[in-house]
Task: structure prediction
Amino acid sequence: MLSKNELKQIRQLASKKYRSKTGLFVAEGIKVVREFCDSGWNPQAVYSVNDLDFVSFTKVDQATLDQITHFSTASSVLAVFKLPEQKEYSSDEFSVALDSISDPGNLGTIIRLCDWFGIKNIICSHDTVDCFNPKVVQSTMGSIARIKCYYCDLEAFLKNHAAPVYGACLEGTSFYTQDFDAKGVLVMGSESHGISPEIKKLLSEKITIPAASDGPHAESLNVAMATAIILGEIYRP
Amino acid sequence: MLSKNELKQIRQLASKKYRSKTGLFVAEGIKVVREFCDSGWNPQAVYSVNDLDFVSFTKVDQATLDQITHFSTASSVLAVFKLPEQKEYSSDEFSVALDSISDPGNLGTIIRLCDWFGIKNIICSHDTVDCFNPKVVQSTMGSIARIKCYYCDLEAFLKNHAAPVYGACLEGTSFYTQDFDAKGVLVMGSESHGISPEIKKLLSEKITIPAASDGPHAESLNVAMATAIILGEIYRP
Result:
């Protein structure tokens, strides 16, 4: 049985402010919680309706989970984890940088994509949605347990980054003809405005996904879809 | 001013049954409504808070739109269109076939992707979510105005289809090495179970998107992302 105070604290972890204050975040659903545990994360607390064989847990009833879930429908498991320590970015592997991505589903999808292709680091502008937002955690399907997101001043970061910086724009050259440096960075811009003017100035190459040439077509692609298509090309053997 | 009956009828168009009965569907938001009009669709009614220069409309206040919207937040425009006539599929262009896609956002995204790459026809199993579901219409961002979705018995359709049938599976050969026939069909399976066993038997080629080979990675890709990556390869010049 959780106390009123505990219930309230877990619910409050829906807000970024409260996550920062407490250093905690929530993951829900058996698949996501298991991925964290399998990846070596040590939960502070796990509440489950059913018995679990991979982690110690507190048994609760569904009504309790309904009270603490961050979603309209509760899963059968909810776990509280510690936020990872924020370290300086230091990697020379290919990475993805996100400029003002605001939709949690898009960030979650991009994290899952990076996890699929083996990209371990994502650099996020300060105004990109928090990767420990419950909706982001959920839509990564657990991939967030393996991927590091670095929040920083993206402009300053790219200014100091030695490797080539590729940016997806509507007015670039075809990405099919681009050679991608194995230490490069792919910048994807916001859902509504694309890459911001300050960041555009720092791109080594503007790339674009050519649309069908005959007749009218979609004006743009969703940022997660564009990321998927470009990563598919970059990881072409 | 809309009558109580009119308000009710528009709200009821959220259900597929009522759309079939009346032969009508709803599109919301200036961008989506404009795309339909630009593509030659003739609205039965347009309700707008602001003046529109591309179509005749009935001026209403926001409170009225709040009453008829199919979303939690209303746009400033809502239009009612006639469902297109269902014709027999007859095309020898490359097409996409969907086997039991249930998420409206996934179908909407796939329609938008097809529109981007110039694919004009999508063949949908009967249990795929209806393409005139308000959430699908919305997430296509207007692309549904240009794409035809054919709902049919997918198994029977593929049995009678002469061109090669490619299916995205977790256990296929790398899609990077596949030659795609210009008259072929790409089958994408459901979010939870992939391509069903009956449909798998009818595939000419099982293809897969290779994941990173070093260490653990995401177990799967979302169906819309997988479609994006494969179409990116098929339309590689």
